[in-house]
């Protein structure tokens, strides 16, 4: 069923009792051409593009929990393409362009809101760094604007401009960036994939990867053995565990990142604002809650909850940037497990096993990448060939000396 | 919880006094070792779900590197020993 204004009226008149389930609940078949491990945003997007763009329809997505229970439902919903390095920027801009057409493509309201993302600078050196980044974006055909202090004061009057340690001197703005409704992205891709014949199998945990003569023949799961022609891993924070089932050793460390939402307020924050004095970022949801987060907790963790000291630090950063936040009450806090890579950039690549494909290392930037990650991963799986915008995101880049280190932090995963 | 770390030199201290350096189970290869051995040492991590050994630097205390054994799921801390003592143990 396609959604339209007419379908809303028709279902309203029949008491909203006739809406159909958005995707089927199939039992697994004995064999698929492609099995994708992980029913998060990236796994579902991969399945959708495999079926729709690359004509591979005999596909299953295996999810150990319920659909969207991982990081796709735990992020702070920001989408942007304001990266600096040539290995990253074309990929994220490809993603941004897919975001701009996603609602029409999926026939699903993902509530994309291109409200603009502004990153604040607090010193001349940081201003220079942001000018450099803005120019790097222009080099890839992506618009960026430097907003100086007086102009910024008119745009966002409530910031702490005269902070003694981190005075706000201006910011780098990407107007096309913004937010999207994260759950709707998972549901929209799931519905789209399902309509193209993909089986989405929830509560089906992969417990082993069966191999014969050096190729994968299928996966052991909590619902029994399922055979496959190709196996694609998109397990985010649990990539090391799933990879280990096929003896893969990965350049990853899992860390916990927290996010927070406050009580609902009247519209007050019109943009996504990123603090340059720390790593704090904030936006306001359509329900009115302020959604924010900052750094990872710093120690490796698989717990989907964070530490109170980090929560306190995040709030301090927020209040330092917007003093008025001090009187807002926080409603909820949660944590997600980030697959932090050794250079802060993701991996979309083949592995040492011919029919095993890998998608991981998204650090805390995975949500914005969802469409491009799915598209490029599907391209790789279907054609056995890397998509042009994902060429720098190879697994062997560390060994070859081509790390894509946006933060310049070196091989220290908790610093990216 | 990993909120409190018992430093062998300073006693029970809040975790905010420490900086986490990373996996302490890795052993630095010889300088003449192969590129592959160095690649594994610098970039590849076991990333265990469960017990793990990590180097924690007590930056706001004795400034010693410690080896903390803890659980990455429950955050329970099992043991904390001085890094030099742990290294001697490995060499033995």
UniProtKB/TrEMBL annotation, chain A:
Keyword Cytoplasm in the entry? The reply is yes
Where does this polypeptide localize? Cytoplasm
The cofactor required is: FAD; FMN
Reactions accelerated catalytically: sarcosine + (6S)-5,6,7,8-tetrahydrofolate + O2 = (6R)-5,10-methylene-5,6,7,8-tetrahydrofolate + glycine + H2O2; sarcosine + O2 + H2O = formaldehyde + glycine + H2O2
Question: Its principal location?
Answer: cytoplasm
> What InterPro entries does UniProt report for this protein, alphabetically?
FAD-dep_OxRdtase, FAD/NAD-bd_sf, Rhodanese-like_dom, SoxB
What keywords sit in the KW lines? Answer: Cytoplasm, FAD, Flavoprotein, FMN, Nucleotide-binding, Oxidoreductase
Which Pfam families does this entry report, sorted A to Z?
Answer: DAO
Instruction: Give a GO biological-process term.
Output: tetrahydrofolate metabolic process
Q: What is this protein called?
A: Sarcosine oxidase subunit beta
Q: Which organism is it from?
A: Ensifer oleiphilus
From TrEMBL, chain B:
Which terms does the record give in the GO molecular function aspect?
Answer: sarcosine oxidase activity
Q: InterPro entries from the entry?
A: SoxD (IPR006279), SoxD_sf (IPR038561)
Could you tell me the superkingdom of the organism this chain comes from?
Bacteria
Which Gene Ontology terms describe the biological processes this protein takes part in?
tetrahydrofolate metabolic process
Q: Name one Pfam family in it.
A: SoxD
Q: What is this protein called?
A: Sarcosine oxidase subunit delta
The organism that produces this protein has a lineage beginning with: Bacteria, Pseudomonadati, Pseudomonadota, Alphaproteobacteria, Hyphomicrobiales
């Amino acid at each position: 069923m396609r959604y339209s204004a007419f379908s809303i009226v028709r279902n309203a008149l029949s008491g909203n009792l006739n809406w159909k389930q958005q995707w089927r609940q199939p039992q697994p078949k004995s064999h698929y051409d492609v099995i994708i491990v992980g029913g998060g945003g990236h796994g579902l997007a991969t399945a959708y593009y495999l079926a729709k763009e690359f004509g591979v329809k005999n596909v299953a997505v295996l999810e150990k929990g319920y659909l969207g229970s991982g990081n796709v439902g735990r992020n702070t919903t920001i989408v942007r393409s304001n990266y600096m390095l040539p290995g990253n920027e074309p990929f994220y801009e490809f993603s941004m362009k897919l975001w701009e057409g996603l609602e029409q493509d999926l026939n699903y309201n993902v509530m994309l809101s291109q409200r603009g993302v502004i990153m604040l600078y607090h010193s001349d050196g940081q201003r220079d760094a942001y000018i450099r980044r803005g120019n790097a974006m222009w080099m890839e055909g992506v618009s960026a604007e430097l907003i100086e202090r007086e102009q910024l004061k008119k745009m966002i009057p409530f910031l702490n401009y005269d902070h003694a340690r981190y005075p706000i001197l201006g910011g780098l703005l990407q107007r096309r960036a913004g937010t999207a409704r994260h759950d709707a992205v998972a549901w929209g891709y799931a519905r789209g994939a399902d309509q193209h014949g993909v089986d989405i199998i929830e509560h089906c945990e992969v417990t082993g990867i069966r191999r014969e003569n050096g190729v994968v023949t299928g996966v052991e799961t909590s619902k029994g053995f399922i055979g496959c022609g190709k196996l694609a891993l998109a397990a985010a924070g649990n990539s090391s565990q799933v990879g280990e089932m096929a003896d893969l050793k990965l350049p990853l460390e899992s860390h916990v990142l927290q996010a927070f939402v406050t009580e609902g307020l009247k519209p007050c924050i019109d943009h996504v604002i990123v603090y340059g004095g720390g790593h704090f970022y904030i936006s306001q949801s359509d329900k009115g809650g302020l959604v924010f987060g900052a750094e990872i907790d710093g120690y490796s963790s698989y717990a989907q909850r964070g530490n109170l000291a980090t929560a306190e630090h995040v709030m301090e950063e927020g209040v330092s940037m917007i003093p008025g936040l001090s009187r807002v009450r926080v409603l909820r806090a949660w944590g997600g497990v980030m697959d932090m890579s050794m250079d802060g950039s993701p991996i979309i690549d083949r592995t040492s096993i011919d029919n095993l494909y890998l998608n991981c290392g998204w650090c805390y930037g995975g949500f914005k990448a969802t469409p491009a990650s799915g598209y490029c991963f599907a391209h790789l799986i279907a054609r056995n060939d890397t998509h042009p915008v994902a060429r720098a995101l190879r697994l062997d880049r560390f060994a070859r000396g081509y790390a894509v280190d946006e933060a310049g932090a070196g091989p220290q995963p908790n610093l990216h | 919880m990993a909120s409190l770390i018992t430093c062998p030199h300073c006693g029970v201290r809040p975790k905010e006094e420490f900086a986490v350096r990373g996996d302490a189970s890795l052993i630095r290869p010889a300088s003449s070792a192969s590129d592959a051995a160095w690649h594994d040492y610098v970039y590849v991590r076991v990333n265990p779900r469960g017990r793990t050994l990590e180097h924690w630097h007590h930056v706001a205390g004795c400034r010693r590197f410690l080896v903390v054994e803890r659980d990455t799921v429950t955050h329970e801390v099992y043991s904390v020993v001085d890094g030099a003592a742990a290294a001697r143990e490995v060499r033995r």
